[in-house]
Amino acid sequence: MPASRSAQDGLVLDAANDESVQSGIAHIHRTHGRLDGLVVAAAPSARTLDPSRNADPRQVQQAFDEKVLTFLRAANAALPIMQGERFGRIVGISGQNAFLTGNVTGSIRNAALIIAAKNLADSLAGSGVTVNTVSPGEVVEHPRQTIEPGTSGQCRPDDVARLVAFLLSPLSETISGESIAVGHRVRGFVNL
To answer: 180 and 163 in contact (C-beta within 8 Å)?
Structure first.
């Protein structure tokens, strides 16, 4: 059961439960009087996926549920508040597995998140609410300096955090529906 925690107010959500997510978002709105941004990063790391079950439908479904449906639950709970305020920023954390083959589970869950976010962004065009995804390469404390052809670059946790902070800020008002790579998007490939 994926959960989200806020150290500030001790809020714990069951991200697999619509009512839990809705009441948690409503609690934050009541407590703070506003909801400017939402970052959804509740899915377990791709490193937790079982490589021997790469194309196992049960693992794919579980990973899809944990990443994409969690994102949609949280976004759907936040959107009425943000639309009412005519301001809001939603950021989903995807991953560069969306752009690579070789990991069916990782590819499907990340690509589906990007597609879901783009659909939401398009439905909100002109509303003051933006929706984007951040697609890190491998996140490590000390990224390697070289990037081999056919691989993505590595990035630090701070690199991801800085991009997310920018996308949550008013400075990003004209950026919506984008999937932005952190840690050099796959070297040697063009994504249009």
So the answer is: yes
Assign 53 a pLDDT band (cuts: 50, 70, 90). Answer: very high
Give yes or no for residue 143 having a pLDDT over 90. Answer: no
Q: What CATH number has the domain bearing residue 102?
A: 3.40.50.720
Q: How far is the first Cα of the chain from the last one, in angstroms, to the nearest whole number?
A: 36
For residue 91, being part of any structural domain is answered with yes
67/61 Cα distance (integer angstroms):
10
Which domain, by its residues, includes 132?
35-70+83-182
pLDDT at 138: 82
**φ/ψ bin of 50: left (φ > 0), alpha (ψ from -120 to 50), beta (otherwise):** beta
Is-contact 140 156, C-beta < 8 A? yes
Residues 6+ apart with CB under 8 A from 55: 104, 105
The whole-number pLDDT of residue 144 equals 83
The answer to whether position 1 is within a domain reads no
